[in-house]
Prior knowledge:
Chain A is built from 17 helices and two strands. Chain A is mostly helical and about 475 residues long.
Amino acid sequence: MLKSISKIIKKELRSAIRKRLILALGTIILILLGVSLWSSFQNFQEQQAAITKEQERKRKEWLSQGDKHPHMAAHYGTYIFKPKSVLGIFDSGLDAYTGTSIYLEAHYQHGFMFRPAQDRGTMIRFGELTMAMALQVLMPLLIIILAFKSITQERENGTLRLMAAQGVSIKTIVWGKVLAYSILILVLLLPILLIIAGGIAVLNPSGLLTFSPWRLVFLIIIYAIYLLLFIAFSIYISLYSKTSRNALLKLLVCWILLTVLIPKTVANFGRAAYKLPSMHAFKENIKTDKDTGLDGRTPRSVRMEQLTAEYLEKYKVDSVQQLPFNFDGVSMQAGEEYGNKVYDVQWQRLNSIFEEQNALFAYASFIDPFIAVQRLSMAFSGTDMFTAVHFENEVEQYRRMLVKTMNDDMAKNSRYGEFYEYTADASLWETIKEFNYTLPTRSKVLYAYRWELFGLVAWLFLTIVLLSMATSKKRWNL
Amino acid sequence: MSKTFKTIWYYEWVTFSRNKTQVFLLGTVFLFGVYAIFCGKANMDEQREIIMQLTAKENAEFDGYQASFQEELVSMEAKQLRDVASKPNFAWFRPGYHVTSSPTDFANLAIGQRDLYRYYYRLTGMSLYYQLYQNEIANPFYLLVGNLDLSFILIYIFPLLVIVFCYSMYSGEKDAGILPLLRAQSASIRKILLVRLTFYFLLITGLVLLLSFLGFLVSGILLEGSNGYAALAWYMMVLVYCAFWFGLLFFIIAFRQSTSFNAISAIGAWVLLLIIIPAILNTIVEHNYPLNSNELASLTRRTGLEDETDAEESKEVISEFLKYRPEYAKDSSLYTQNLMSKAYAAFTFLKDKDSKKLVDEYNKAVMERSQWTSDFSWANPAVTAQQTLSRIAHTDLANYMAFQTEIARFHQDVQDFYFQPLYTDSEITQEDYSARPSFEPYNGEPDWDSMYMDTLIVALLGCIFFFQGLLILKRTK
């Protein structure tokens, strides 16, 4: 059987190379992959440089803001720019649709600003050229064109009958073809894989903050499974179709459904089923909660009275002026913390809608392997929504630390009721360390995308079972 | 109409209606189109609903201010409200004016970039750019996947129908072995081909126009007389776009290759026009016109005078401001009352003046980039068609940029409304509020010239392919 398989592989490879169409399409995809690699790499370098420059500038502005009251400094604030993920070169994911910068100041949580896609016309919605896109959308098409007549042609030419007469089992033919096309695709992708490997060796991106080798390993695994799925599926359809023309039509319809129609439809269901609030309503809710209290019964004035009474009691004094520190700083920080609490409640509410919307796509991975791979690919590239939210949360923690440091300093070093009289200097600004972002860990990412992973594995399993069943039934259909 | 015509059409109809798969496909696409019409409408209705809420809220806020002038001021809150309404040192940054850009009726059918753009802002007299750059809440993954609306069905799905119905038009007969029979007919193969093509052209464009008509009906477009022209432009574009695909298919068929070759070439053309070319252009434009919004980020920073209590610094800032607004210089109490507020207002005014240069430069770069893309419309018929539909619906970039300009202009009005009493030390009265600035919901101006041009380009491309196909058929006779 092994001998026949290797013979089939050799024959398939030879005839594929002889076909000009396959060679031409393979070359086109290879060129597209190359172009996207090159241009994404250029963009990455440019943007990374711009972000580093701007981040350094903001850091300098923060440090050299001069002597001022800490609360003024907290309002003056600073900016955090979302760092570029190195693997974004491979899959730019949601980079065009999440924002690029966040402004940090006291009292207010600002969300992301500037989605790059905003500065583009409708063309951006047709998608960007990335290696991920080429592998997710174009490679399956190449595989379909390569394999749609893999069995039907043998049947039409009568060679299937000949092989049957020679005692070759249908199983051998099917698996031989699966292997042959897998080798072909691997050979086609080899130059790109070599360039990437070379690039990693030369550039040594492990120094860059966003690179961890496991991400690359997982990317290779999911794409290997995905492409294998399409190879097996194409051969399966070819096995079950009467004519090549029929097989091609069926496969193309599937391709359109999987890559274009199903994602759009799922998105539409998700949007209608889990409605997002407007930014206006979101902010309004935060304001109401702050004004009237989370329980709706303790307005700010009551909360302040409670806080004052608590401190007077604790320090056994009659007025806040007698406290050994500036009560303004304490009340400011208490207000800040209450604001944070309110924000956490509202943000959690909003985030749970996002999660429900995304979960719908996660489950859709079981219907559509394209969705699974699209989501996993951006997850492992660090350009997905989970990373964006993780980043936003980290930034918010940093903002809280910054504001608290300012308030604490004010409480410690200034006197009650005085504002312009006290100024802090660079030594305080320096205590705020630079913000450093690290991508979420492996276990977190894998857990967040467990359904997509299951979905992909389920697809692989299903395809193998289908192929085995089909072959065991001896579907010669001569 | 000649008899041959009728005979061919009749039998084409018989073959078509007997092919269950084809009828099923046609029906499915039609139903999907109807579904998309309602999806788009639901999507845009959400925006309309929010705009209505905002308008109601703004009216309630200002009704409160109006009422505060009449009431006997007993409670603390009433007094505060009256202060916010009448004292310019509060009023210039407290009351919020909503500027909105309502979706047009056509937006239901071509959402374009509207899900991405902000369509409402709450403005006060404070620094404009501090108030502009917050993103609207949206799920980035959903933005990436995009919207389901009629324009998507027309641009992406209908070309596929054209392909499915026509790809085997010559080769199919060859495969079936009835080509010699056809040759024996009095009508030439070319004529038969063309007549059959017209049959499908009428069938598919009929469906496209019908779907568009349903879309117009559902969106209430036909009720507004002023929409007539735009509806015509829509019809023209979708008609021309369909014709383009038929031209292209005819070109492919004319090579008289195998059925598989036709299918692969046609789907290849679809992938090229709807995926590869736009994707490549998107990448090139990003590379040729890099835009760095990071610089704009700084504009949102809350800054103020170094020391608000320093009268000298305040006077300096105000006198700088007076260079732009000399009309306020006359007032004798200019530097005595409300100095802090005046200085801060002047500071934000000056900061905006300064920021405007940066913003204008950035917007110019955005427009240049968009212009560059438009220059490729001849290579990019699918994007060009989509662009035109978005233009008709006012959901494209140019429209958003125009909205931004409108916002800046209106912000000026709001500032003027409050600066006048602030710098002349007068209170704002109830009468003043009856003449408060109000923003006309912005719908944008149509760019008819570009739409005609783009329709013409797509039509020309279709013609080129069609006549090239005719030539090839003639040559290989």
